[in-house]
Amino acid sequence: DLAKEIREFRSPTDGETRMFYEIVVAPGYTEKGLEVLKGKSKTLRILEAKRSGKNMLSLRQVSGGWLAQQSDDLAPEDITFTTGSERAPTDSELSDAKFAWLCVKHVKSNAIVIAKDNCMLGMGSGQPNRVDSLRIAFRKAGEAAKGAALASDAFFPFAWKDAVEEACENGIGTIAQPGGSMRDKDAVDCCNKYGVSLLFTGVRHFRH
Predict the structure, then answer these.
(1) Which fold has domain 76-200?
(2) Transmembrane ranges (predicted)?
(3) What pLDDT, in 10s, does the model give residues 5-14?
């Protein structure tokens, strides 16, 4: 499938890679791989993207200067999911939460992702508040959101009659968020009331 083909391109390509593409991006190419790719099409774009190291800076230009911060490059396997609720997630729920957390990293803040079975069901992005992003994500996910995992790129400033409770009322099974709010306990209490598993990552994405 396409996902498998994309994964294969994360290593240097060789002559055995024979699927049709418009654009190819890989860390490197063997001579045989380049020969095969160049022979496919005159319009094929072949790009080389070296892997960047860790602890790189992310830069954004502003009027009169630059803003610099550490890049959001922590590997998924280095994230520790800590259960904050009374109910711990099942193995499948934890897997869904990890996938949702991986996805929400690449969504513009305020970002909410709903996922299940390694599939993103709904996404809300770029909204001025987390509730609006959540509602967009639920609108996209529909009934499939029941029992799914929800990831938020930053903490929930409020819980009751806000995003956390709305997520619980709409049938979400697990919520993953960074934590760090003065009202984290409200989020925990709300999830406990609805029997939802709440996970803290200790790391935020918050991509502007």
Answers:
(1) Cytidine Deaminase; domain 2 (3.40.140)
(2) none
(3) 555 555 555 5
